[in-house]
Amino acid sequence: MEDLPNCPKCNSEYTYEDGSNFVCPECAHEWSQQSVGDSNEEQQIVKDSNGNVLNDGDAVTVIKDLKVKGSSSTLKQGTKVKSIRLVEGDHNIDCKIDGFGAMKLKSEFVKKI
């Protein structure tokens, strides 16, 4: 059997060929076979609330008070977060915050220092 690439969106292994495209039956994502040859992994660009591009290891500041799910405390505006790590998904910043521990943040609620 032919070795087809996994879906770049949901990582499903059940992809199939449809003409000159690959199709994922689980999430209905379609991509061209030529794009697989160009690069297997797309580079994600994450921007802060001001439109500055964020990179792994950057330091950011929280721009508004955020409720912490599963806790009665809030993350206050102006909290500094060092050494962020960018991940895929809705909450695209992975970090550790003093007094809170490991957290995921949305890039729209932070500002690059």
Automatic annotation (TrEMBL):
Residues in domain Protein YjdM N-terminal?
A: 4-32
The record's listing under InterPro entries reads:
YjdM, YjdM_C, YjdM_N
Residue ranges occupied by any Protein YjdM C-terminal domain in the UniProt entry: 46-112
Q: Which family does it belong to?
A: Belongs to the YjdM family.
Which PANTHER family does its entry note? PROTEIN YJDM, PROTEIN YJDM-RELATED
Protein name per UniProt? Protein YjdM
Q: State the organism named in the record.
A: Psychrobacillus psychrodurans
